[in-house]
Amino acid sequence: MEPKSSSCLTAMMIGALTPGKCRVHSLKNYAKPENVGAENYYCRFEYKADIGELAPDIVAVHCKCEMPYNPDELMVKCEGCWER
C-alpha cells in the first residue's frame, strides 16, 4: 500500500482531482481509528502563510534508512534495512 500523502499540497491536489470531499488530518490525528478511510489523508507539515514557512522544519525519522514514519504501512523493518 502506498502512502496517501506526504504533504498538504499533494493531499489538496488529490482532493481537487477526486470527486467528493477529502479530509486532511495532522499526522497525529490521522492515526486515530475514526480517521482511517479512503477519504482521509495526512499532512506532516503545516504552512504558515504569515511567515511563508512550513512547520516543522525537520521530520523525525524512525529507521536505519532515515525515512519518515508512514502511518499507512506497518513499519517493522523497511526493505532497505533488510538489505543491510
Automatic annotation (TrEMBL):
Q: Which UniProt keywords apply?
A: Metal-binding, Zinc, Zinc-finger
Q: Which SUPFAM superfamilies match?
A: FYVE/PHD zinc finger
Has the keyword Zinc-finger been applied to this entry? Answer: yes
Q: Which organism is it from?
A: Prunus yedoensis var. nudiflora
Q: Which GO terms describe its molecular function?
A: zinc ion binding
Q: What is this protein called?
A: Uncharacterized protein
